[in-house]
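Action item from last week, closing it out:
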Amino acid sequence: MAVMNYSVPRTIVYGEKALDKLGELEGKKAMLVTGGSSMKRFGFLDQAKNILEKAGMKTAVIDGVEPNPSVKTVKEGAEAMIAFQPDWIVAIGGGSALDAAKVMWCFYEHPELTFEDIVTPLTMPKLRTKAHFAAIPSTSGTASEITAFSVITDTDNHIKYPLVSPEMVPDIAILDPALPAKMPAHITANTGMDVMAHATEALVSTASTSFTDPYALEAITLVAEWLPKAYKNGNDMEARYHMHNASTLAGMAFTNASLGLVHSLAHKIGGEFGVTHGLANAILMPWIIEFNKKSTDKYALAEKALKVDNLENEIRRLNRVLDIPASFASCNEVDFNEEKFKAVLDRMSENAYNDPCTLTNPGAPSIADIKAIYQAAYYGEWKKA
């Protein structure tokens, strides 16, 4: 039996008014990293700044991180950090802001590196020589606040790269359910199904262990019960609390067990078409569960926990409740032009096959298998060979 590691943030603070924990950080300067306008609009960015400044820290802000953070964005952010010299990096917002901040942190501490230097898993050098990292998620989905992962997009080549290093696990995760309570219903749905994808993939991963399975199963049961309630009523704080915790629990599982084909395929179709990551996961998940059942019986644990006979059909039912389309062809979030889909299918399939997440998927899926899954998820049915 190989020696393995289990890594999570040293401190996880969760529950009502958890944001106040920022006031206990010790340092001189804090750089806040956020995305679009929601954290400003709802006052959370100012609230975080005020708490830090009352604790004696100077603050500066990097904002405008795009939904699919690019190499250019993280390099520019690192330059701003080099100029400001923070000893705390505080990422507040959705998974994109948290992911971008992690890689900005890397280039802040190691400005000599190129993006290519850290693309290969586990090649990131030691961090925390200049700053520590606090993560405050505003969505219950990516679990970036807990993980060793970051997803960055090469916009020139239309490829999303999942970066992996235990160095990127934040020092503190702050889970305040007041932040995700501001998410619109469709974002609640998409990010919530991202949690379900994290948990189900961690459960069946070839790297799963008795340390990761309980967190994955608890997250699966929490999502099944509370996501429809959070979707129906965004102000249901009990539902928000449980979904925010479910996101982190799933993160504790997958950051240590890794993921599988759902994420491999979602990364690449997201890079080609710009579809939201959680939405892509939700559409792909039933088809990949169905495919993976040929190679693992561990989905039965989730079916037992949920008291259902068929997990892929339960995911399809959840998608319907959440108004998530059953196929990419019926998805109108972006233009899923069939001609373009056919044109990029071979390239997407090969890129997904080479995605690091494929390594821990059950069985040994081939490029042809991946192509067949993409076609099933696009058309809503398995295509005959």
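Closing note: The longest strand covers residues 88-93.
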